[in-house]
Design a protein that fits this description.
- With about 325 residues, the chain is of the alpha+beta class.
- The protein has two domains: about 170 residues, Ribosomal Protein S5, domain 2 (2-Layer Sandwich), CATH 3.30.230; about 140 residues, Alpha-Beta Plaits (2-Layer Sandwich).
- The chain has eight helices and 14 strands.
- α1 packs parallel to α2, α1 packs antiparallel against α3 and α2 crosses α3.
- The longest helix is centred in the middle third of the chain and has 20 residues.
- The radius of gyration is 19 Å and the shape is globular.
- The structure holds ligand DP6.
- The site of ligand DP6 has 15 residues, from α4.
Length: about 325
């Protein structure tokens, strides 16, 4: 019997950036995201008595030990809960440009949490699934839900999980400008850790988050996509400012990211409601009205190629799927 599960990626509008506890992944702050339809991962876990180690196949290629670490964390938790010791084979297909800051770990670890728990015969609640996915990768805890979700930081393994905020059945969308789909130099895990430990700007970031989060929730409740974009852009710029103060300093921006940000500002001058956000990579994500996605894309084709531009709408939460 197969246990295929699909999870969609999410993009944070209020960013998670820094951990209070690095071992069990308790964040410094609450974050809020939008799950999208365009990027997802499909995963099937099989526990097999004949295996002597866990195996991960990504797009049919067996992966080395390093990329297994996050996967093992989730599998070990599932084994403990189910009272089994059996090793697992994980088959995963990524419909996400891997590790380009497009949050592939979010959809990947969420799908893994869903499939591994099914394979072990556990019947977990969404809250438990979110908690489990979090241990693989923090942002994954938000991909359990469709639409907007808030990761409530909590203070322990059991109390740190995401909750649904709004289904996003209204006029909001995202357009990705892919400026580089290669592996990033500084992973989000290392980047946030270095920033928390060394950046004098980090406290300033933390101090302004409460205000950003409550303004964001108000904008979502009013279905005001313009305000949502405005707050998200401000929040992302503050997060990225913290990395410049770190020792050694670093940035996820490339010259191409700056060109993309300029293109978004130009769109605003032309009267579009368009703002951007960025994660731990050089790609730029535009937050806009869903009804204006195609028009905005057409404008951007002056500066970028068709294959660099990917439109996305709000997507669903974790799904069990049938796959041949
Ligand atoms: C910039 O969830 O990848 O995308 O918990 O260490 O696995 P770990 O980090 P990860 O960090 C995501 C950081 C971010 C912002 C966000 O998604 O909130």
């Amino acid at each position: 019997m197969s246990n295929w599960v699909r999870a969609h990626t999410n993009i944070a509008l209020i960013k998670y950036w820094g951990k209070e506890n690095e071992n069990v992944i308790i964040p410094m702050n609450n974050s809020l995201s939008l799950t999208l339809d365009a990027f997802y991962t499909e995963t099937n876990v099989t526990f097999n008595e004949n295996l002597t180690t866990d195996e991960l196949y990504l797009d049919n290629q067996i992966q080395d030990f390093d990329s297994l670490l996050k996967v093992k964390t989730v599998l070990d938790l599932v084994r403990k809960k189910a009272g089994i010791k059996t090793k697992a084979r994980v088959d995963s297909f990524n419909y996400v440009p891997t590790a380009a800051g497009l949050a592939s770990s979010a959809s990947g670890l969420a799908a893994l949490a869903g499939s591994a728990s099914l394979a072990a015969g556990l019947n977990l609640s969404q809250k438990e699934l979110s908690t489990l996915a979090r241990r693989g990768s923090g942002s994954a805890c938000r991909s359990i839900y469709g639409g907007f979700a808030e990761w409530q930081k909590g203070h322990s393994h059991e109390t740190s999980f995401a909750v649904p905020v709004d289904e996003a059945n209204w006029d909001i969308g995202m357009l990705f400008i892919i400026v580089n789909d290669k592996q990033k130099d500084v992973s989000s895990r290392d980047g946030m850790s270095r920033t928390v430990k060394t950046s004098p700007f980090y406290q300033g970031w933390l101090d302004s988050l409460g205000q950003d989060l409550s303004a964001m929730k108000e904008a979502i409740a009013k279905q005001d996509s313009h305000k949502v974009g405005e707050i998200a852009e401000r929040n992302a710029l503050k997060m990225h400012a913290t990395t410049l103060g770190a020792t050694p300093p670093f940035t996820y921006w490339s010259p191409e990211s700056m060109r993309a940000m300029d293109a978004v500002r130009k769109l605003r001058k032309q009267g579009y409601s368009a703002h951007f956000t960025m994660d731990a990579g050089p790609n730029v994500k535009i937050i806009c009205k869903q009804s204006e996605l195609e028009e905005i894309k057409a404008h951007l084709l002056n500066d970028f190629t068709e294959s660099q531009l990917i439109s996305a709408k709000p997507g669903p939460g974790l799904q069990k799927i049938e796959k041949p």
